[in-house]
Amino acid sequence: MKIPKHIAIIMDGNGRWAKAKGLARTEGHREGARSVEVITKYANELGVKYLTLYAFSTENWARPKTEILALMTLLEETLDKFLNNPDKDIKVIFSSSRKKLPKKVLTKMEQVEKESAKNKGLILNLAINYGSRQEILEAVLKLQEKGLKPTKANFEKCLYNNLPDPDLIIRTSGEQRLSNFLLWQAAYSEFYFTKTLWPDFREKAFLDAIKDFSARQRRFGA
């Protein structure tokens, strides 16, 4: 089986999962956080080198304030787990506009980055307060500020993280769109859409996506 070097996931369906079970949306997000733990650990075991998770978009600020507060609290709790029970294999980085994020969250993000910096296994890239259009605009401004030639290589150095492009992008919950996620980086990514809601997306569902990817022949325009 061919393991993608870089997998990116649009984690969708927490609210619908909760609604179907008669629970508050926050419970869907909490169970979704459990899927993050499971999939991160399993991706590392499979030998995936990079895992990018779309955790909170720049558009998500339009949600009700109570839901945003719950999401930020859950994000703090998730980061605390990385700090208190660190996986020595996993290096955590962030694709993120640091503007608007609560100070507590920013502090924990910086701590997690620092404490996991020397880890040699999977690189977990959390896209928090992320929007691809915003990332591209900021990269253009950085390119101009630094006086760099407008080449592909220089532009990519100005993105939030200059990671290899994702080989496979997964979206859960049945929706089939990118939702302002990795628009530059997804130029030749393979896409996999599943109706499974993110809180139910665990090892088998992840392996099914990789098996589907393995059966494809990639040509990169050739």
Q: How many beta-strand segments?
A: 6
Helix-strand pattern: EHHEHEHEHHEEH
Calculate the mean pLDDT score and round it: 95
Beta-strand content bin: 15-25%
**CATH fold call:** Undecaprenyl pyrophosphate synthetase
CA radius of gyration is: 17 Å
- Strand order of the biggest β-sheet: 3-4-2-1-5-6
User: CATH class, please?
Assistant: Alpha Beta
**Helix-residue proportion:** 40-55%
Structural class: alpha/beta
Uncertain residue segments: none
Provide the CATH superfamily.
Decaprenyl diphosphate synthase-like
Coarse morphology: globular
- Overall CATH architecture: 3-Layer(aba) Sandwich
Oligomer: single chain
Largest sheet: 6 strands, parallel
Q: Please tell me the total number of domains.
A: 1
Count of DSSP-assigned helices: 7
Distance between the termini: 23 Å
Could you list some keywords that capture this structure?
single chain, 222 residues, alpha/beta, 6-stranded parallel beta sheet, 15% strand
What this model shows, in words?
This protein has 7 helices and 6 strands; from the N terminus they run βααβαβαβααββα. It is an alpha/beta fold and 222 residues long. The chain has a single domain, classed as Decaprenyl diphosphate synthase-like (Undecaprenyl pyrophosphate synthetase), CATH 3.40.1180. α4 links the parallel β3 (91-95) and β4 (123-130). α1 crosses α2. The longest helix is centred in the N-terminal third of the chain and has 22 residues, at 25-46. It is globular and about 55 Å long. The model has no long low-confidence stretch (mean pLDDT 95).
